[in-house]
Amino acid sequence: MAWRCHSSYLFLGFIVLISVSSSSQLQSSQAWTLLSLQRLLNFPLVLTSWEINTDFCGSEPNPSVTVVCYEESITQLHINGNENASTLPRSFSIDSFFTTLTRLPTLKVLSLTSLGLRGSIPAKISRLASLEIVNMSSNLLVGVIPGGISRLKNLQTLILDHNLIGGRLPEWIGSFPLMEVLSLRNNTFNGPLPVSVSNLASLRVLVLSFNKFSESLPDLSGLVNLQVLDLESNYFGPQFPSLSNKIVKLLMRNNNFTGGIPSELSSYYLLQQVDISSNKFVGPFIPSLLSLASIKHINIAGNRFTGILSPNTSCNDELEDVDLSYNLLTGSLPACLSSKSKHRIVLYSGNCLTNKAQIQHPISFCLNQALAVDLSPRNLKKASVHKAIVAITVVGSIVVALIVAFVSFYFLKRTNARRVMKRPPRRVIEHASNGYPSKFLADARYISQTIKLGALGIPSYRAFSLEELEAATNNFDTSSFMGKGSLGQMYRGQLKDGSLIAIRCLKLKKCHTSQNFNRHIELISKLRHRHLVSALGHCFEYYLEDSSVSMLFLIFEYVSNGTLRSNISGQKLSWTQRIASAIGVAKGIQFLHAGIMPGLFANDLKITNVLLDQDLVTKICSYNIPVLAEIKDKVIAKTSPAFTDHIDRTMHEEKIDIYDFGVILLEIISGRPVTSRSDAKLMKHQLQESITADGSARRRSVVDPVVRKTCCGESLKTVIEICIRCLSEEAAERPSVEDVLWNLHFATQVQDGWRGDSNSSEDSPLSSHTPLSPHTPALRISEG
Ligand SMILES: *[C@@H]1O[C@H](CO)[C@@H](O)[C@H](O)[C@H]1NC(C)=O
Ligand SMILES: *[C@@H]1O[C@H](CO)[C@@H](O)[C@H](O)[C@H]1NC(C)=O
Ligand SMILES: *[C@@H]1O[C@H](CO)[C@@H](O)[C@H](O)[C@H]1NC(C)=O
Ligand SMILES: *[C@@H]1O[C@H](CO)[C@@H](O)[C@H](O)[C@H]1NC(C)=O
Ligand SMILES: *[C@@H]1O[C@H](CO)[C@@H](O)[C@H](O)[C@H]1NC(C)=O
């Protein structure tokens, strides 16, 4: 019996046992009330034992009927009918029934289930002011939840499962300070879940399954006691609910959720069961779900999750069932799932995995389907805004021959679209992911970087809708406009959750095959690192009517503390902070080169493309994404910027960034803007002389006075030397990024040591100390 679980009830029951033995009889009026109820319910089978002489308080409780008394009054009444019971007579009146019931004002627990009660719950239920637990499941109750219930301030549990109650859930549902269990399964509720639900601080169980609820849930992250959230079979969505990480059971099957699953999910250490099947989720599956601390049941079937599964992924030993069926997963099943040793149910058919024991699609299916498109009809107002954006973008568009995979969609959707509206509809590609052959998977760096993503403190990569971007930028209002570069406009925006974003709007001019489209997005989604302005998501958009790709929006985090140049010229950075900035840039380069596959080289690094955040962490904000490069190449052909005349483009492509890094270092050291390559050559020459020359006068003319005040000579010398090497004309002579990092760390270390040493003079001469080789273990400073 479920009520036994309730600890306050157990306590009550204990008191009752004592009182039953000492005091004797129930007030006769209350006994009569019970007999009236029996008559009103048309003498159901379960109540055949009730007679005029029955000792109600003394009778043995059983699952069907239980009466509990305290000091001659009834505190609990359970009448649980048989599901096969004959229906109540036509003359049954729920109003009379409750009128009778209110003669038991001391009731704390009321359970009336499977009795065929029909009609709507009368408002007079409020007269049962002591009610704590109410269970009226499996009746034929209709109408709405009466406002009278809002006066039951002691209510802890309200269960109305399997009825026909509906309408919108009233806002006052959030006004029960003690509410622990609210269960409305299998009714006809619709509309959104009221925001007030987030005030139910004691809530442990929230069951809303099998209704017609819609829209996204309010922020429930404040409900730290919430253990069970059951939303199955509603129209909730599109946003993934925001929850506390103490959730134990999360059931979201068969709703209208889209987008990616948030990376927070992998911090739900108490989560035992997650069912997000039969939604429209997209984006990469998070393999770390399989190894969550408490996880037993996982079901993600029937979505469009992408990503490459690795045999090395580990699983929680306690996993009992995993259903990955009907997604777009590639790679091979984690060994822990494919081994037969455990009594574990693993379903994975309908993906593109290499394990063929359950039916799989060919890999091309998953790659193409990852591009599955959605027709999103737009109203005219938005369309004109959109045209305005197009109008201010560079040059006209090239008609794109549709990718084979899209052709069927195209005709289908086009016919639909014609029927619905005259103006050109547009489809928004919700996402596209996947596509790296498994050889990349073998690269451990790739995997380790993917795993690290969670630690960045930024939301997981996802597809954005254009509506969202329009809302964030106030319809791309000019007040949101940040600037226009060779690669399109930048807009600043603010998402609903308050976070700031930067949006790069790109006009696509080239035909993309499905394969290279996939790759671009896969790559962009990996551009997340502490020292990059990280990609948060994207949004694709194009017209159906003439098949031309119109726009690609790339959404990045917004970094607000200015460029590295403005921070240097504003004299805001000490020498230590300048080295730290340089280390940040170098780590960013290291990630671009080796942290993602394939690496990004020739990123055209400039000090103005290095931003600082609130904590003075440097972030590279412009890098050589292939999609951008395709657009950019045309532009460069016309105007050749200062630093693009590098030699040996193909032979030493990673060294191009090292040269640019050297230019940034020049500015860090000198505090003066370096605006041309000849400028850079001249300053490099001066630096070289300053190191060899004895006189400090020449050094002064080169080094930023701010730096001279705050740095130790040895630290400065180390940085100058590495700077000179970075600026070598011969690409092969430039140091590796690891070498650069080692030297910069060394410069920090000697600087730290120097600061502790009060004897050192402010203007200490550049010492002749040479740093040890990068391979000297004693001095290596660990990365990260
Ligand atoms: C409510 O009543 C139904 C039917 O008797 C029962 O199955 C269910 O467990 C009860 N719920 C609770 C939480 O007591
Ligand atoms: C209800 O009736 C069905 C078929 O007559 C029977 O199988 C089932 O056991 C009955 N249920 C109960 C609770 O008596
Ligand atoms: C919903 O309730 C009806 C009647 O109360 C029952 O027949 C049906 O099986 C229930 N559906 C679910 C999904 O629980
Ligand atoms: C499902 O979500 C889409 C947008 O994501 C929305 O347009 C649609 O109305 C939703 N469906 C229902 C039944 O709420
Ligand atoms: C998986 O583990 C094996 C042995 O531990 C190793 O050889 C292999 O490279 C790993 N594969 C991946 C993709 O990490």
How would you characterize this protein structure?
It is a single-pass type I membrane protein. One of its GO terms (molecular function) is protein kinase activity. One of its GO terms (cellular component) is membrane. The chain is α/β, with parallel strands linked by helices and 784 residues long. The chain has three domains: 278 residues, Ribonuclease Inhibitor (Leucine-rich repeat, LRR (right-handed beta-alpha superhelix), Alpha-Beta Horseshoe), CATH 3.80.10; 101 residues, Phosphorylase Kinase, domain 1; 224 residues, Transferase(Phosphotransferase) domain 1 (Transferase(Phosphotransferase), domain 1), CATH 1.10.510.10. It is 29% helix and 17% strand. The chain contains 20 helices and 34 strands. The protein has a 13-stranded mixed sheet with strand order 1-2-3-5-7-9-11-13-15-17-19-22-24. Strands 25, 26, 27, 28, 29, 30, 31 and 32 form an eight-stranded mixed sheet that branches. Strand 33 and strand 34 form a beta hairpin. Helix 13 packs antiparallel against helix 15 and helix 19 runs antiparallel to helix 20. The relative contact order is 0.04. The N terminus and C terminus are likely disordered. Bound molecules: 2-acetamido-2-deoxy-beta-D-glucopyranose (5 copies). The site of one 2-acetamido-2-deoxy-beta-D-glucopyranose (NAG) has 6 residues, from helix 9.
